[in-house]
## 1
Amino acid sequence: QVQLVQSGAEVKKPGASVKVSCKASGYTFTGYYIHWVRQSPEQGLEWMGWINPNNGGTTYAQKFQDRVTMTRDTSISTAYVELTSLRSDDTAVYYCAKWGHLGLDSWGQGTLVTVSS
Amino acid sequence: DIQMTQSPSSLSASVGDRVTITCRASQDISNYVAWFQQKPGKAPKSLIYTASTLQSGVPSKFSGSGSGTDFTLTISSLQPEDFATYYCQQYKSYPYTFGQGTKLEIK
C-alpha cells in the first residue's frame, strides 16, 4: 500500500533553515507528483508547491517562491522541502502528499517545525 | 488567489443524521474541487476529487456535488468516526487554496 513517511519534528531559531524529508513506498515514486502543504492554527492549510520526481521540475506558491526549494532523490524514493530564513510564523505542521490521477490521494503523517528563539 | 469559503464553520449533529457542508469559490473553478477529512493530530484524508468522485476506499455515505462556484459535501447516516473537521480545496489555478474548515461535532 502507498506510504509516505516523513522525518521527525524540528526546532529551529529564526533565520535558520529546515529540510523535511518524505520517503515514499508502495508505488512508482517517479510516476506521481509530490505536493507539500503546511498547516498552522493561524493560517490553516496552505499549499506550498509540488515537485515532479521524474525530472525534478517544480512549481512553488508565490508566497514561498523566494524561500522554498523542493528536491528529490529517486535512488531512495524520497522528496524534500527546504525552507530558509525561518520566521516564527513558519511554525506549522508540514505535510507531503501524493498527487494521484486527479487529486491528492495519500498524505504523510506530518512534521512539526517549531521556530523559536 | 481564489478564496474558498466554507459554511458553516462548525456544525453539531447526532449519530444517524445527514449533514451538508458548503464551499463557495471566489471565481469559477469548474469542478476542480477536492474534499478532505481531518481528525485531531492526524493528517488529512482525501475523500473526493473533481467535486463528486470518491477516492478509492471511501464509503458511499460521502457524496459531493457542484460546479462553477458552489459545492457541497454531504455525509449520510453519521457514525461516531465521521465527527471530524472537513476541508475543501480548489485546484483550478495556482496557488491551490483550502477552505477554513468545518468542524463537525456530536450533539
## 2
Amino acid sequence: RKEVEQDPGPFNVPEGATVAFNCTYSNSASQSFFWYRQDCRKEPKLLMSVYSSGNEDGRFTAQLNRASQYISLLIRDSKLSDSATYLCVAFDTGRRALTFGSGTRLQVQP
Amino acid sequence: ETGVTQSPTHLIKTRGQQVTLRCSSQSGHNTVSWYQQALGQGPQFIFQYYREEENGRGNFPPRFSGLQFPNYSSELNVNALELDDSALYLCASSLEGQGVLGYTFGSGTRLTVV
C-alpha cells in the first residue's frame, strides 16, 4: 500500500465548475501536509499547506482530518489555467522527506 | 537570487552505464534533496545531503549515491543503469530547519535508459 494515495483521475470539468480532490495517508508519523501543482514536464510547485483548521487561498481550500488521515483540496470556479496534476504530499520530519501521492490530473475545458 | 539549476536537462544512457547528474542549490540554501519521478507517478525521495553528509535516505539501492560540495551544490550518481531508472530526477534545495515551505525544486533532468 502506498503511503499517500490519490485518485489518478483525470478529472475533466468545464470552466467555472467546482472540483474536489481527496487523498489518504498511512504514515501516522507524518507531521505536515501540502498540495503541490505540477504542470506537464515541469517541476512540482507548492500550492498550499494543509491544516486541521483548514486553509483557504482564493479559490482553493485545503483541509486535513488527522483522525481519518484524510486530506482534501477544493477548487472553486475552475479556470483553464488550473489544468495540471495536483500532488498530495506528506512531510516526515524524522526522515526529512516529502512523500508524494501519484497525483490527480485535472483538465478544465472551455 | 538564483533558483535551483540542474544539468543536464536531458540525457540518454545505455543499460549498465553510469550517470552523474548535477544540481546547484539556491543561494543561501545548505540542504539538497534528490527525488526520482517515473512517468505517471509522484516524485520519490532518494536522499538528502546536509553539510556534505547524507542525512536521510529513501528506499533506493546503494547504486544510487550522492555528494554535496562545500558550496552546497550536489551530484547524484547512478551506477549499473537499469531500464527502470528512466525518469525525471528532481533536486530540491532548502535551508535546514526551514521545512517544506523553504523547498525550491529545480526543473529536473530527464534520464532515458535504453
